[in-house]
Amino acid sequence: MNIVHLFTYNSYGNGGFSQRICRQIKLFYQINSVNFYGVHFLSFHKYLNMSLKKRIQNHKSKYINKNYINLNIIYTIPRFRLFNSYCFYYWITSKLLYYKVKTMEIDLIYAENLKAGYIAYQFFLRYKIPYILDYHGVVPEEFKEFNLKHKAIEKEYRYLKKMEKTTIENAKKIICVSHYFKNYLCMNFDLKSENIIVVPSCIDQQKIAFSNSMRFKYRERLKLTDENVFIYNGSFTPYQCIEKMILFFSILLKFEKKIFFIFLVTSNLKDVEDLFKKYHVQNDKYTIKSVNHFEVVNYQMAADFGLIIRDDSLVNRVASPTKIFEYLSTGLKLISTDNIGDIDILNIEKYVLSTNDINEDYIMENYINILKKYDRNDNFNKCKIELMEKYIWDSYINDYENIFKN
Hints:
It is built from 17 helices and 13 strands. By secondary structure, the protein is an alpha/beta fold.
């Protein structure tokens, strides 16, 4: 069986989208009955970026292996924010895809997210090759949430909604990232439950680890003794609610002095520092670092609570942040808002609050429960069971094999 693995977004970075695709490719190596041909549509002006060009070459050399036969880059014009330009873009990309794969005996297209899915739909109309849509999140709502200042937002949003409906309702199967997302799709589109498979944004099994000696080593390095330690590991972007996290910590500090915050970000360290100052958090109550990826897990071992706060929106309610499962991989207790994907079904130590609860009155009443002690080794074992059953890629190998065979 021959499958085109189709995507349009940058899969060469370190974000959640890129990580999901790269980990899927490693999973695809294990499906011996299928050959995969990667096709990536990339705007030509982006390819002129030498840094991106280098990452693409590294990506190709790293992941073309076993049954992942090739990774084709197809250069296109940008998608302009005009209805007619959009129509032309998807017409021309489906044509370009045909010229790239016409000599192959393609059985199926596996499309990553909505825009690749819509190209696959256009291809299906002309050449009758079915497609599977791997839907990472509600793209029209994401666009609206992240482009509020754009003048033509409503017009483009409506066009994306039409694309979404057409792409979803003509897909052979849908893969989505959470059970909440699955319920949303069933309620809002003409879909049967059995045609939707939930595959969360999983982690690799080898990342599940906890060491008391490493915990002690890194706590000693940070001059920590019996403090309750929070950690955030991620990027500095608006949807991560960085300011609300720091506000939460600053309020908690009013009622419990023996707490500390490890803040790991890849950039914007000065912006994070300014936020701690804004909320009058003393310098000895936090550290801000940018560390190598392999070291993140050691800082997580040193911490006690993994913090993730998101605004209440459909974008977050359907999500499956990899960050949650990275926190669980070292047995951290999760402190989370209640509007993130399948947070309610996780059988681990956690404290769940709403975004409206981030205020002095609520935290004064509940800080003892928020900071309630737990057995780290026991919770690590709980997390390991939860992750092994539902949140590592290898646990979905049979699902993918069945999807492709059928």
